[in-house]
Amino acid sequence: MAEIRIAFIGAGNMAASIIGGLVAEGHPASTISASDPSPESLARLREVAPVATGSDNREAVTGADVVILAVKPQVMARVCIDIAPALAGGGAVALSIAAGIPVASLERWLGPGVPVIRCMPNTPALLGAGASGLYATAAVSAAQRAHAGTILSAVGLVRWVDSEDDLHAVTAVSGSGPAYFFLFMEAMAAEGQRLGLDAETATALTAQTCLGAARMAAESGIGLAELRRRVCSPGGTTERAIASFQSDELEATVARAMTACLARSKEMADELG
Ligand SMILES: NC(=O)C1=CN([C@@H]2O[C@H](COP(=O)(O)OP(=O)(O)OC[C@H]3O[C@@H](n4cnc5c(N)ncnc54)[C@H](O)[C@@H]3O)[C@@H](O)[C@H]2O)C=CC1
Ligand SMILES: O=C(O)[C@@H]1CCC=N1
């Protein structure tokens, strides 16, 4: 990857996931810096990759090509207003990964002349298995768009969306999505134990099954419903389990959860924007 100087503001879970993935992909750690007031966050990050760390956000953004805003939505306004003078005229693009914060707010806080990209990534970025939705305004140059795409592609799948509003749906699908699968796996592993397996075996079988199913969904070129049908031997065991899920309205349960997620994303935009 061409050397892009990347500054992370906020060195928590998501920053560590993206930095870990970037460095594992061969992006030089020497071109990455991270700023965070929490010594604990910085120490955890240094265990992931030997990047430059500090607590001065303005210093971190100076000279960066891409500034990744990786703080919680609740502190984003304060952080942006604080770094705005250091970004002015520097030519950097700001890339926010915060849920719910609209581009218009980021532009207002960062000041004129700082192009903004919004991204909704997810934590499997740590393993290079992330999934990110990105949205850029017209003020973002083709080169800056390419930089953002290169960074996020280093840690997984990237899809650009044409409308900022679509990022709410991306959040409901892939941003929050890993947690849905963890919850589902927790339930499967717990039931596996109740049915007699030891905890390690139940968890390992569950995780590997999820991984295998996900790889088939992503790589086989076969539709999801067909993949499911191929596991269901007529009159067999899976058919019984699927019938039980369907009579318990699994699809409606999933739809309600994702609708709640999307509603919260919109609510956050209203509260914090
Ligand atoms: N965790 C996830 O799965 C995903 C999170 N996001 C978004 O990523 C952002 C970060 O989330 P996490 O990494 O999970 O949170 P986190 O709490 O792990 O990390 C946030 C970091 O920001 C630091 N921070 C607080 N005030 C700061 C300041 N003034 N300057 C610099 N750093 C400051 C905190 O000390 C902390 O280390 C959020 O906006 C969230 O919406 C997006 C997609 C997925
Ligand atoms: O729960 C959240 O608000 C963040 C955004 C997507 C995943 N985690």
UniProtKB/TrEMBL annotation:
It comes from Pseudohaliea rubra DSM 19751. This is Pyrroline-5-carboxylate reductase. The keyword Calcium does not apply. Belongs to the pyrroline-5-carboxylate reductase family. It holds the Pfam family F420_oxidored. Residues 5-89 form the Pyrroline-5-carboxylate reductase catalytic N-terminal domain. NADP(+) binds at residues 9-14, 70-73. It is found in: Cytoplasm. Its EC number is 1.5.1.2. NADPH binds at residue 57. PROSITE patterns: P5CR (PS00521). GO terms for cellular component: cytoplasm. GO terms for biological process: L-proline biosynthetic process. Keywords: Amino-acid biosynthesis, Cytoplasm, NADP, Oxidoreductase, Proline biosynthesis. It catalyses: L-proline + NADP(+) = (S)-1-pyrroline-5-carboxylate + NADPH + 2 H(+); L-proline + NAD(+) = (S)-1-pyrroline-5-carboxylate + NADH + 2 H(+). InterPro entries: 6-PGluconate_DH-like_C_sf, NAD(P)-bd_dom_sf, P5C_Rdtase_cat_N, P5CR-like_CS, P5CR_dimer, Pyrroline-COOH_reductase. Residues 164-268 form the Pyrroline-5-carboxylate reductase dimerisation domain.
